Amino acid sequence: MAFFDLTDFDNHEQVVFCSDEKSGLKAIIAVHNTQLGPAVGGCRMWDYASDEEALIDALRLSKGMTYKNAMAGLKMGGGKSVIIGDAKTLKSPALFKAFGDALNGLNGRYLSAEDVNITTADIAIANSVTPFVTGTEGKSGNPGPFTALGTFLGIKASVKHKLNLDDLTGLKIAVQGLGSVGYGLCEHLHKAGATLIVSDINQAALNKATTELGATVVSLDEIYDQDVDVYAPCALGASINDETIKRLKATIVAGCANNQLAEPRHDQALLDAGILYAPDYVINAGGIINVSFEEDYSVERSTRKVEKIYHTLLDVYAKADKQNKPTGIIADEMAREIIKNGGK
To answer: Is the pTM of this model over 0.70?
Structure first.
């Protein structure tokens, strides 16, 4: 594999491959950019089909964190880590201590937090051997509820721009993925009067959504075909691709998943289809915004900053309309300009 020729390698400052035979740790830490501050981004644990797939995920996610932190107005760079393996069988205190030791090797260039299949309890174990973690209990804590809130506000901004509506009452929204963030988003949407159509691999979560939120359940594949106003991808990435774009009936794509576009060109494809796309790293920044208050935590200040996601998206949409460019391209340009200007 020609590492430096990979499409997703974007002049990353550092990529570290970590292993510990005793605990079974196999991890990749990708530091994309530290111009605005130390790289910050969560760690996810996934049973990847190949090491190359894990590497590409780390590269894409870390670049997204650079842009996410810049657009959120944070003095943080972008990084991400992935642990390779089945979280149901491989997790152990030894594993997360070994991961903490790996973080020590970067000496603060990268700070990790929780992400897919990683909890605050897991991060606490790593924290027992390293200071280079964030989103810890007793400080900023679980960032998930703030990601859900920011995504909800981003959907409201998208509906305002595309449909000229301030109210979600009666709108139909298809939510793909009912993890902790996806379910939290559904709770906000239900409270706001939206009608929910959901899919997930977890039957218990589906049952809960049906009972508590009046959601309609469809299969994993059928979620793309629903006659809805908004499609909200809240599972893993790449659900927006050549096949699914042709099937979408929604006029808005706005969800909390990372790397929603299978390829960058799908940004233009959505525009050509008349679908408004909320750039993923803009709409799902609520969690990292909350984490940014780790050392002087205030839920009120964190919430106020998360609420700015609404206005940031409206700004992105206005610029995209004016320049007749895809929203993702506009967000990238805005993020790069922020980084170039030192965060201003």
So the answer is: yes
